[in-house]
Amino acid sequence: MTQLITIKDKQFRPYLSAEQIESAVKNVAAKINKELENETPVFLVVLNGSFMFASDLLKEVTIPCEISFIKVASYHGTSSSGSVSELIGLTEDISGRTVVIVEDIVDTGITLEKLVAILQRKNVKQIKVASALLKPDSYKKDYKIDYVGIEIPNDFVVGYGLDYEGLGRNLKEIYVLA
Ligand code: IMP
Hints:
The chain is of the alpha/beta class. The chain contains 3 helices and 10 strands; from the N terminus they run ββαβαβββαββββ. It has a 6-stranded mixed sheet.
């Protein structure tokens, strides 16, 4: 029997088990360990949603690395371009470094595109992207997502760091809107 859960006004059903997530995360880590073997990458964990993925992923990463936590804040500036993005929390000098952006989910890719644009201005050696989840039907940007845990349909999900109105981040499985 399907165990529905209620978060605020919505019902969600189990979608990805903790075991399925664990296996996907291990695959991502194995790929990173192989491909970035000769780098000492800086992992930039995009808060808040990526904390759980980052923790599981980085326990499986065996190459030397640094880990930092960032936030992308959007605000409406006075310029005609509208929304402006700013990166909060990055104190390290990342010039010349291989940077791995750690995301919980890539949906339209708007957040990722902004982040990549900011990082490209910092003269990094290369940018790689690791995301626990990707919605390929929603993602319309050209930027390559190098390491994807699980591709999912264009449905709203919660759990494993992802929230619905601030709730559900602590769930160890991923649930989808019922
Ligand atoms: P994007 O800019 O459209 O790629 O969306 C990225 C952000 O939207 C993610 O980092 C999440 O915070 C949020 N998001 C997108 N899809 C979902 C979802 O299905 N559940 C919860 N949050 C989501």
